[in-house]
Amino acid sequence: MSDATSPGSTQEIKLYVKAPKVYPRETEGRFSRLRVLAAWVLLGLFYLLPWINLGGQQIVLFDLPAREFHVFGLVFWPQDFFMLALLLAISAISLFFFTALAGRLWCGYACPQTVWTEVFLWMERFVEGPRNKRMRMDKGPWNAAKIRKKALKQFLYVTFSFWTGLTFVGFFTPVRELVPSVLALNAGGWEAFWILFYGFATYGNAGYLREQVCKYMCPYARFQSAMFDRESLVISYDDKRGEPRGKRRKDADRQALGMGDCIDCYGCVQVCPTGIDIRDGLQIECIACAACIDVCDEVMDKMGYPRGLIRYTTEAALVGEKTRILRPRILIYLGLLLALIALFGVVLTSRQSIDVDVLRDRTALYRLTSEGIENPFTLKITNRAEQAIRLELVADGLPGLEVVAPIGGFEVSASGVSNRAMTLAIPPDTVGPGMHQIGIRLSNAVTGEVLTNAETRFYVPPDVR
Predict the structure, then answer these.
(1) How far, in Å, CA of 373 to CA of 375, rounded?
(2) In the predicted model, is pLDDT for residue 3 greater than 60?
């Protein structure tokens, strides 16, 4: 590009500058401990659940080929799609509720990107040491020690990522069958693909991209402001108390120096996983991990100043206005959330273990016999229970209506779908021609308990009478 001030000279202007690597410093405090606890709980659930069996069945298994979804002893089918829609609605309203209440709690404590990044950062600290040591090593020349540490870190990254991909596929293929097949190099093509794909995604997002995912790829940061208001609890720097900032001795009189409480130590910047300065105000890059609160409170304790220079507060409170936590927006979200949870509970508890669909035989609408009129049907019976059950069939709704087949009880396999041929008959000259409403009842052959009911129509041809 030509330089107007120097004819004939050229100047290179970079339109994109590579973002510097962020080296978050480790910190201690109540929010850091809470974040580590949340990571342990969530990762424990992810890595342990596939290995837990209940009655010989993996406690969480999404069996796509069989169209069965086993969750804590319950079996869900594609017919239960309404319940999935309810869960998605509950998740969405929960996100709105907690964001309006206290900002990006999901991002700071429960987001998979945050949780897995914590693990990769722990491995990096374990191998390469604390923040300053890592920075010096990356700037220094390559030598045997640096190669050894980088190789060990990559080995841990790849191993952990592969384990993560294997566990992920273990939610869809029984993990006790998957692991031996992978170790024997006999895994199926799709299983191998998803293990490598999910492992690579884990490595790339949490081990390499890290904060770039939160800053540039995650859409949540872009629309979160629509859910905030002046009374939402967010992590904020109290500039009235902290400014003017400046370094000073611990025993210095800050009032005499005309300074605020901020000693400009940059601790809040050093611990931030996205590398922002919270003193510049709320930013879309902030994931609300509260690491800056912990380190600032630690500095305030050392200086003998009150805690809370950086804290959870509201925009209204910072300017001296009254804050209402329970305001209309929060109450509306909470009401919707409780209503959806209650509806999901009702649907779940009222769900029948046996479900039946009555399908008419399209090849033969009716048959005329010496005994009367027969209508053939097919029963599609879904057994959601984890054990087989023996059923008895009863039909009613028309005079003389009887079950020709199946005679006696019949068994339906556990957690499966069975198709049974059913034939119903009525004596001749019982009812007039046309479609007549009838009822089908399935009961437990052992206890006699009625498990499900269905309705269908019995056809009487016009030329019978």
Answers:
(1) 7
(2) no
154-202: pLDDT as tens digits: 999 999 999 999 999 999 999 999 999 999 999 889 999 999 999 999 9
Measured distance CA(242)–CA(240) in Å, rounded: 6
Collect all residues with Cβ–Cβ distance below 8 Å to 132 and sequence separation of at least 6: none
Burial state string for 172-192 with b = 16 or more CB within 10 A and e = fewer than 16: bbebeebbeebeeeebeeebb
Say if residues 29 and 295 touch (Cβ distance below 8 Å).
yes
Q: Are 135 and 20 in contact (CB under 8 A)?
A: no
Q: Are 134 and 35 in contact (CB under 8 A)?
A: no
- C-alpha torsion sign, points 105, 221, 310, 38: positive
Question: 211, 165, 229: which is closest to 191 by C-alpha?
Answer: 165
Picking from 281, 270, 274, the residue whose alpha carbon sits closest to that of residue 215 is 274
Which ranges constitute the DSSP H helices of 170-274? 175-183, 189-202, 211-212, 220-223, 239-242, 254-257, 267-270
Torsion of CA 347, 350, 356, 359, to 10 degrees: -50
CA 402 → CA 277, 362, 375, 393, distances in Å?
Answer: 79, 21, 11, 10
Average pLDDT over residues 395-422: 87
CB 426 within 8 A of CB 446: no
The DSSP secondary structure of 233-258, one letter per residue, reads -EEEE-HHHHPSP----TTS-HHHHT
Residues with Cβ < 8 Å from 441, sequence gap 6 or more? 393, 394, 395, 396, 450, 452, 453
3-state SS, residue 325: coil
Number of neighbours of residue 257 by Cβ within 10 angstroms = 12
Q: Which two tokens stand for residue 139?
A: 């700037």
Q: 2: pLDDT confidence band, cut at 50, 70 and 90?
A: very low
Phi, psi values for residue 68, rounded to 5°: -125, 135
Average pLDDT for the chain: 89
Model-level pTM greater than 0.90?
Answer: no
Listed in order, strand segments (DSSP E) in 340-388 are 354-360, 367-369, 372-383
**Burial of 333: CB neighbours in 10 Å, binned 0-12, 13-18, 19+:** buried
CB 121 within 8 A of CB 206: no
Domain annotation for the chain: domains and CATH numbers: 19-351 (no CATH), 354-460 (2.60.40.10)
Q: Hunting for tokens 């859910």 — which residue is that?
A: 227
